[in-house]
Amino acid sequence: MSNIALSKYIEKLIRRSELPHRDREAILSLPCREQDYLAGDTIVGIGAPTTHCCFVESGFVSRVKRVPPDLNQILAFHIPGDGVDLQSLFFTASDHKIYANAPTRVVWVPHEAILELAAERPVVANALWLDTLADASIFREWTVNVGQRRAVDRIAHLFLELYTRLLAIGAVHDESFELPLTQTAMADAVGLSLVHLNKSLQLLKKDGCVQTKGRIVILTDKAKMIRHSGFDSDYLYLDGKRVKAFSEDCEVVSAVA
Amino acid sequence: MSNIALSKYIEKLIRRSELPHRDREAILSLPCREQDYLAGDTIVGIGAPTTHCCFVESGFVSRVKRVPPDLNQILAFHIPGDGVDLQSLFFTASDHKIYANAPTRVVWVPHEAILELAAERPVVANALWLDTLADASIFREWTVNVGQRRAVDRIAHLFLELYTRLLAIGAVHDESFELPLTQTAMADAVGLSLVHLNKSLQLLKKDGCVQTKGRIVILTDKAKMIRHSGFDSDYLYLDGKRVKAFSEDCEVVSAVA
DNA sequence: CGGGTGCTTGATCTCTATCAACTGGTGTGG
DNA sequence: CCACACCAGTTGATAGAGATCAAGCACCCG
């Protein structure tokens, strides 16, 4: 089967909330089509009609909004197992660009297929909806990051977020992970200029918090980074700790209906 | 009937997408309970269990995240007709505070009732989901605002957003609207210090863009504000222009199922 | 009347942006 | 194989935006 991406997505969902076997099967049997991208490739352009949404199988993806004349704000990063365009499930066109930061494989699923599935299976609908709400929670924390924290802490917070999310999908080894981002991209993510990001990142290194080897990032003093940046992983909703159980209720309801 | 808030919420939904009569009725017959707040009152505290979500009937509401030691980032404003806590529909506790900026009346609806309704009526589920996605779109634009724009433009952008949203609910008269915010709150919304917000706001006034009379804001040169801040109301998804029609599909599906 | 809150102002300092130049690696074409 | 361009990263100097500090004013309310 070609739906590794959807399997990974299901794994993400069930880390957070129960998902009965037949609902998983239903997701896995969604019609889909694989596609590969190279670093720098645009996956969804601004204004492009949004008829499909994609799930990341491997690689690294950014969503970025352009501000004339020449500013870019990265809104989110997506790693394997993430659903990328559920955010525009009900919109006709994308208002921001989605592109690959590294060689990336995604799987495309038509919106109608997802909506039909959601209409048939309230449990799936809730799981997907919940996933978009978790994404929204991350957007909010990014607003806080960019709006309130100083440069070094912004970077630390971003690294801790990526560390935590990559840890959940098994992509962290010995406190180190691959981060296929140029410093320009990092700067756009945390709302800093390239030069200032570079210098602040060096401060983080001098402070013993971070090491880099090529595109590998090693968090050598997570505790300090957490302390200074005020990072608290709750907003990521990676597990079920702060998530309501809904599958039972929905089973009952859909059985009644 | 006491569900003026829900009527206003339905009006908001149908500005964006079709909602058959019986679905409207179903929303209107949700169990609910009114509550009034004074300016400054906390509506939902940090860590409070989220069992209900509320809809604003009148007044003005903020959601704010605190950053130790003493920083606050306002994440969103809510005006009459908005649903406030759909964002935590599936979460057990609130990770940020929600409070009233002015005397405010809301209507509380239990989460289970909403989830049951959504499970029974895919059209309603979609409309609510869409509403949370529209909110998420606003979160993203706020990230851009605090991350990329300069002080004066941030304020202009915020004013234009509120102008546009208030216009949609008929709360704008002669380019003026009531904005029951202290300058401290405005500063927390756009990621500026109080002092700098004050001075930047005065620049906006001197530039002929804005006038204030007490808590009334008058946009005297919207065109200039739009030009400088790059405001484009599309991200608000106030009408159906960029929203997919989904009610027919869902009708069919739910009839089949 | 006193005290609180919200707004305003000026001086100063810090952080971040901008400008400009240089390095090192990579890839390409002659 | 070298010359060249190009990109990512780095560095230093300078400028500007925004934060902080401190004080004072206006208003409302008990």
Q: For the report, how would you describe the main beta sheet of chain A?
A: 4 strands, antiparallel
What proportion strand of chain A? Answer: 15-25%
Low-confidence stretches of chain A: 252-257
Average of the residue pLDDT scores of chain A: 94
Largest interface, with Cβ-Cβ < 8 Å? A-B, 59 and 59 residues
Main-sheet strand order of chain A equals 2-6-4-5
What class, by secondary structure content of chain A? alpha+beta
The quaternary organization reads as: homodimer
How many strand elements of chain A?
A: 10
Shape of chain A: globular
Helix tally of chain A?
9
Radius of gyration of chain A: 19 Å
Quote the distance from N terminus to C terminus of chain A: 33 Å
Question: Could you estimate the helical fraction of the residues of chain A in percent?
Answer: 40-55%
N-to-C SSE string of chain A, H for helix and E for strand: HHEEEEEEEHHHEHHEEHH
Give the topology, please.
2 copies of one chain form a homodimer.
Chain A: H1 4-16, H2 21-28, E1 33-37, E2 42-44, E3 52-58, E4 61-67, E5 71-78, E6 97-100, E7 104-110, H3 111-120, H4 122-148, H5 151-168, E8 176-178, H6 183-190, H7 194-206, E9 210-213, E10 216-219, H8 222-229, H9 247-256
Antiparallel strand pairs in A: 1-7, 2-6, 3-7, 4-5, 4-6, 8-10, 9-10
Helix pairs in contact in A: 3-4, 5-7, 5-8, 6-7
Chain A binds a DNA duplex (30 and 30 nucleotides) through helix 7.
